[in-house]
Design brief:
By secondary structure, the chain is of the alpha/beta class. The chain has twelve helices and 14 strands. It is globular, with a radius of gyration of 22 Å. The relative contact order is 0.17.
Length: 408
Amino acid sequence: MTEKIELPVDGDSTGRDLGTEELALLREAIESGHLTSTRGTFVPRLEEELAKVFGVDRAIACASGSAAVHTAVAAVDPAPGDEIITTPITDMGAITAILLQGAIPIFADVDPQSLNVTAETIRARITKHTKAIIATHLFGNPCDMDPIMALAKEHGIPVIEDAAQAPLATYKGRLIGSIGDIGCFSFQQSKHFTSGEGGIVLSNNEDYARRMFLFVNKAWGYGDAKPDHYFLAPNYRMTELQGAVLVPQLAKLPGVVERRHKTATLLSELIADLSHVEAPPVTPESKHVYWRYPLRVKMEGEGLDRLAGYIRERGVLCAPRYIQKPAFECQVIRDRVTFADSKWPWEGGHMAGRDPIVYDPKTFPGAYDGLAHVLVIPWNEFYTEEHVRAIAGVVREAEQDLLQSGAV
């Protein structure tokens, strides 16, 4: 039996590439006395450098990954009741961003293997009210973007990429986050590069970029001849302290991604012969960057939970079923708990003459199948070959234990 493993974790310094470079720039920011990005240098520097990395015209930093998605949604400027197609398997912050802008989330089913939306599942949800499509690159594995972009072009619908888990992932040689009309990234604690919280949006579209710049700044026209607050918008600015951490984090990002990719690829090779546990798929002609390592387990219910329990007991943290249930089953959406008892934006005068929005579980076979069989293992840049071989051994033993016990 494998001894209990001790692994680095992204919740502290054991699994985060943070050090002297970040401390030096933090000190510089503090000594400058300019901690707001409206007068500082680090956030503008981050924006410029990140735009250059992704080959886009503009990058606008903001307070969080959720703020990034909200800013992107605001850029397409939905009217109350407009629909935005997204995935039911994502962080709730990426969905409340839609609701806070008065739009209605419409969930596309996912491929049960990758848990990503596809052009086919999105097509089934497009209506005359569709204002945008959000393609979420789950776990760091790119969506199949060419068919999605072709579908969006066919209908004249902008595409927002939620690349929070996929920095430097590539699809057919193109960086994820630079393919759609707007790209969104997160700098939350567990992401590939981090300042604890933070986010950024990218675009080559001048109109979207202008509106996003304004949106994170209370719609105040900084730099305009006669600035004003042009429309309703929050303060989503990033601080100079975050920017000071992220400038060196961006420089480290290629190395972080390569280390994660190398170790995750090794685990996939080591478990390739298992009968009831599969390595995560990689979209063809793409590079997966492994925010997490999602095993596909050919068992569900008690079998999946027993496998997870066996692995946890030996020191490998894991999350069976990832988010446990599709987003539309969460109370905020199920019971439409938004502004008092209004159930807005699902209900109200703007919905007159329209059929009610219904999230029918029967129309999401891929999401339910995918969640029932996924076991998510945390991943970070400080896993070594020794760590990975130990994890592979634990997974192998767990499968054998279940087979021998007759649980499978």
